[in-house]
Amino acid sequence: MRAIAALALACFAAAAPAQGWPTKPARIVVPYPPGGGIDILARQLADHFQSRWGQPVVVENKPGGSTIIGVDNVAKASADGHSILMTTDASFSINPHLFRKLPYDARNDFIPVTNLILLQQLLVAHPSLPASSLADLISLAKRKPGTINYASYGSGSQPHLAGEMLKNKAGIDLVHIPYKGISLAVPAVMAGEVQLTFSGIASSIGPIKGGRIKPIAIGGGKRSPLLPEVPTFAELGYPEVETHAWFGLFVPAGSPREAVTRIYRDAKALLDDPAFRAKQLIAKGYEVVGSSPQEFAEFLKADSASRARAVQISGARAE
């Protein structure tokens, strides 16, 4: 894969400076339905931007096609900085390796602006599963290969890739059960339809505290302050099991340097606000990032390479 970082820097440097940007209403395109975590944060950002920019900023939800519809809409928008894409790792780290052909070039059609947050997922289990630690789970799976299943929300989704990477690195056989939506996997585990799934903290912490599911491990380099008793895959010896999602901002390639700088600076100001950070981000299990365009580009390069390996191991393919 060509260096996304070099591309971002080239686009950033070559863009002509805008005069008094923004000069008209702006929009944030979210390739997901209304109501989810990314949509809520997008609307908070839109309100924040509008108050700073003196221009209307609206959120446009364009779900469908594994985020492809919304991403393509922004790829083909005017490169004036007034069309902003807010999406997840699915669009840039996973889809280029999952789909044989995309209607846009993920490497060349966008400038990364900022990675807003990381959201680490937990491996959770039904209480009846006779394993309360990762070591227990691996031991059980080796004794009874093919008898433990895990839910995901589709081939190539983050839970699917994490599950297949765990199988590969631990040398175990788990059965993949794909569901049709992100909201179905945790209820399936709670109901005992499946034994395991990977889920974000926000949707897991209530059932965990209520004893309806139990946590096994969490992704990332450090434990969550919301669930400090849950170890990370890395500390348990499986750093390759990456479970994170991220929410990031992008603009079309060639967008004005002033627009990129302004969007990044003002987004970071909201992330750095102590009250907003504590109540709206950390309380939901988000890890605040707020990286610069250059830092985000470097992160994307590494994240895409890691997900490419996971897609290859999983055998997932979308058409």
Question: What can you see in these coordinates?
Answer:
The chain is an alpha/beta fold and 319 residues long. It has 2 domains: 4-118 and 246-314, 3-Layer(aba) Sandwich (D-Maltodextrin-Binding Protein, domain 2); 121-218, Periplasmic binding protein-like II (D-Maltodextrin-Binding Protein, domain 2), CATH 3.40.190. The chain contains 11 helices and 11 strands. The protein has helices at residues 4-14, 37-53, 68-75, 89-98, 134-143, 158-170, 185-190, 201-209, 257-272, 274-281, 293-314, and strands at residues 26-30, 57-61, 83-88, 110-119, 121-125, 148-152, 174-178, 196-200, 214-218, 245-252, 286-288. The strands form 2 sheets. Strands 2-1-3-10-4-11 form a 6-stranded mixed beta sheet, with helices on both faces. A 5-stranded mixed beta sheet has the order 7-6-8-5-9, with helices on both faces. Residues 1-18 have low confidence and may be disordered.
